[in-house]
Amino acid sequence: MGLLTGLRVIDLSRVLSGPYCTALLADLGAEVIKIEAPAGDDARHFGPFLEGRSVYFSLINRNKKSLALNLRDERAQSIVAALAATADVVVENFRPGVAKRLHVDADTLRAINPRLVYLSISGFGQQGPATGLPAYDLIIQGMSGLMSLTGDPAGPPTATGESISDLWTGLFGSWAVLAALQARTRTGTGETIDLAMFDAMMSLQMTGLAQLQATGSAPQRVGSRHPVTVPVDCFAARDGHLTIVVPTDALFAQLCAAMGRPELAADPRFAQGAARRAHQAELRALIAEWFCTLTVDEAVARCQAHDIPAGPVHDLGQAMASEQARARGLETRVPHPVFGQVGIVPQPARFASGGTAEAVREPMVGEHGDALLRDILGRSDEEIAALRNSGVLA
Question: Are residues 54 and 171 in the same domain?
Fold first, then answer.
């Protein structure tokens, strides 16, 4: 039993933003019915692959049931409508206008079930001059200004190392769905939600937006350092890299002591935050000179001994194998018919009551179709066979 056990979600989405949103709900026990095309979600064909099967798709579509329908057929549309009549939530991330053409849009389904919470995720929202344009994570990172702030100042704009626009939008989507469900307990009616990836990424850039409003100029790339607070940066040690965060004068004095250079704390160039920012290149050179004499472990230990926030820069393999990741139980290993086992990393919140459902693998294409039509909609075996023979059900 999870916190959301008893909640039924019809997932019409594909690839990443919508499926990540519904995976977060499924982690907490929601029944997520994934409606996908007979050929399957496009993400089933995205690498990397193991034994010919997408690991990427597996991680994003954990804990779901699959019903494969040809939504261009009116009979398939009627099945979605019948399921929506029993559901609490519908999530879709078609390009604006597609859901309406398929008769699975908010107006159609909420007319059948006024208590339904209907979430539409798109690149640019349901209105605006960019509505209808194809949008992928990289496009949104570029257009939102995020890429302009990422990377080395001497290099080109750089995307983050993950599809952050998709993932953050999915996270906002799960938050919006739960907010609407909470409101439904008071009003008795559902909600239609318009969520754009572009809007989501704009809303996250707090430091950059603050700089823009304060100065009237768009902030520029500064590499790994913080654009305002100095020294907050990444440094090279003898055998790798580490990060430090020194946001106050008191912590800076501690850093100077750790370096064996206590006099720097009183140096007019560095004594206060504004001065350190004005002379950041000189200060960075001094700190870098010290760190390059130490190993990462030595440097982190020296900093932590003086209460300075510091940590090693790990690759993903090191992070997943770390004692901290193991202690937190970040990865759940579940049985898998192709992989043997698959490591799922579900939503990270830890509820004192438990709150999460037992993790299970992603579904095969249409794996639960017969059972869903029989158990929820009361379709007979003969009706199900006829739908399959006519190509409506895969």
Answer: yes
The 3-state DSSP class for residue 385 equals helix
The pLDDT of 54-63, averaged and rounded, is 97
Cα separation of the two ends of the chain: 30
Confidence of residue 132 (pLDDT cuts 50, 70, 90): confident
Q: Is 279 among the catalytic positions?
A: no
Q: Say whether both 337 and 190 belong to one domain.
A: yes
Catalytic residue among 103, 226, 279, 306: 226
**Is there a single domain that holds both residue 192 and residue 268?**
no
| Burial per residue of 74-108, b for 16 or more beta-carbon CB atoms within 10 angstroms, e otherwise | eebbebbbbbbeebbbbbbbbebebbeebbbbbeb
Residue-wise pLDDT for 194-226, tens only, equals 999 999 999 999 999 999 999 999 999 999 999
State whether 345 and 248 are in the same domain. Answer: no
CATH number at residue 114: 3.40.50.10540
Residue 310 β-bridge partners: 244
Same domain, 261 and 354: no
